[in-house]
Every structure is written in C-alpha cells, then in structure tokens.
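Subject: design request, 296 residues
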C-alpha cells in the first residue's frame, strides 16, 4: 500500500467527501477518486459506499482507517526523526476561541515567536462544537476548549484549569448594590452576550430560560464589554477578560455566582501521536496555566 494512497483515503474517510478532501489535499477531485480506486483495487475490496451525493465507509474501510492513521503518523514521526535538529520546527493548527486567544495565549505566542521561531502557529477561531469536529477530522492539531464537560468522544483532553466567570454591569446599575441576586432578578434585565454556541453564554441563557430572558447579541467579548459599560445590559464573561475594567472601575461585579463550572482544556484526536513540536506546545500551555490560573 502506497503511503500517498493511505493519506488520501484517510482524508476522505475523515471528512466523508471527495470534494472536500480534494480541496484540503490540493488535488483535483478526479485524482482523489483515482487514488481511492487504486487503493481499493490493491486491497481487492471497496472502502466506501457511494450513496448518491453522499459516501460512507464500508466495513472494510472502517477496519482500515485506524491502521491508515497509525501508518501516516509513524511516517511523519520517522520523517521528523531523520530530519530532526536541536531546534523544534513544524506547523501547529490550533482551534481556539476569542477569550483564550486574546487573554490567555499572548504570553505563549510571544514565547514561541522568540524562542521557537521555526514552529509556525496557526490559530483558527472556532467555538467548541466546530473545534471538536475539526480535531476528529484531523484539520486541527490541537484545540483549546472552554467547556463544562471534560470528556469528549474521539478526543484526548487535559484540563488546564477552571475558568472563573463573573457577572458584570456598568457602575451605578440598579443591581450593583443588590445582594443575593436570583435568576428572576437577572432575567428582568437586558442581557448582553457573545454569539450563541459560546459555552458560558449558552449555559447562562439555559439557566435563565424559565424566566424568559432577553439577550442582546454583541458578537464578541470586546463589543459585549462596551455594551455593558454603556449601560445597555449586564453580561456573564470570563473574569480574565474583564479584569482590567473591574480594577479601573469601568465595570462592576454583581453579587451572583454561576451554578455551573467551565474548564479550559487542551485536546487532540484520540490515538494521535503528538510530534515533538506539538508536544512542546502542550507542555508550555500546561506551564502557562499553572503560572497564571486566573485573575483575582
């Protein structure tokens, strides 16, 4: 079995689309189809069922997939070992989200930029569901998640730390001097938040759902903070994203504790061997979160 045929098969099997696999491999679709047929011919069995415009793995294809991934990863590991230098090198595609990119990752990005210049980091802004899917499909090498769950189907994940959340309002807001706020108190106010799909926004909205809350969607954390500061509503945000505003008095924290917990995690596809430069990123991320677990 030729390695290039296995690479093409693995990509088609992961994304379940000849068209998408061709785009990601930078091949013509006819080349992808021909390579899959060549692999099927060499094995003497069909690997995909063609169902009109859709495809799915046959039983033989399902059995072959984990072996194909192991062979591909071993080949990459062998290539890295042969060409290895003392200096880490390679590309890492990381799926992440705004709050982590803007407030957690800058020290890590700066470290890699200055100390490991041959490691190229590509940050892909996606929310949890899209990040997990891209990891399973092999589009991303690593993903940074902020989720209440710490186990994810098809993925290995490691908790880096608990992400503290805080409910914020403009100074002088009617709830600013209230204590022991309830869900009904909060739902009676205009609520500001990033787009749906963000874990803490979705959990907050679900918690308040019985009281029919009204959300103003501002899309991003920065826009949400500006909306809150302008008196347009209150928002639940990671504490690290509003630490400066709380310290300066631009925003004030309300007396309410979320009844749910989020964990920042780093994840990769289950069974994937992490190349040395990817493993280095994971190790440095662990160290970063140990050194700065959260804002007070």
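Subject: RE: design request

Done. Sequence follows.
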């Amino acid at each position: 079995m030729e390695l290039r045929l296995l690479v093409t098969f693995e990509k088609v099997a992961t994304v379940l689309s000849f068209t998408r696999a061709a785009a990601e491999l930078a091949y013509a679709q006819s080349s992808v189809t021909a390579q899959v047929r060549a692999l099927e011919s060499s094995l003497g069995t069909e690997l995909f069922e063609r169902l009109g415009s859709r495809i799915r793995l046959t039983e033989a294809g399902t059995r072959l997939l984990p072996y194909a991934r192991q062979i591909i990863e071993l080949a990459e590991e062998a290539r890295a070992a042969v060409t290895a230098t003392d200096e880490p090198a390679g590309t890492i595609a990381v799926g992440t989200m705004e709050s982590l990119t803007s407030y957690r990752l800058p020290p890590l990005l700066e470290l890699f930029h200055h100390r490991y210049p041959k490691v190229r980091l590509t940050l892909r802004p996606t929310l949890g569901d899209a990040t997990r899917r891209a990891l399973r499909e092999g589009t991303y090498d690593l993903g940074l998640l902020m989720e209440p769950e710490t186990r994810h189907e098809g993925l290995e994940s490691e908790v880096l730390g608990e992400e503290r959340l805080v409910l914020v309002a403009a100074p002088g807001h009617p709830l600013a001097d209230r204590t022991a706020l309830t869900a009904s108190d909060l739902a009676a106010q205009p609520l500001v938040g990033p787009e749906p799909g963000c874990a803490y926004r979705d959990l907050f909205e679900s918690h308040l759902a019985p009281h029919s809350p009204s959300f103003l969607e501002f899309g991003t954390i920065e826009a949400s903070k500006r909306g809150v500061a302008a008196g347009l509503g209150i928002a639940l945000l990671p504490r690290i994203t509003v630490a400066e505003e709380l310290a300066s008095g631009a925003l004030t924290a309300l007396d309410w504790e979320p009844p749910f917990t989020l964990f920042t995690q780093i994840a990769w596809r289950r069974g994937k061997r992490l190349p040395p430069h990817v493993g280095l990123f994971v190790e440095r991320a662990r160290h970063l979160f140990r050194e700065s677990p959260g804002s007070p």
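Residues 165-253 form a domain with the D-Maltodextrin-Binding Protein; domain 2 fold (CATH 3.40.190.10).
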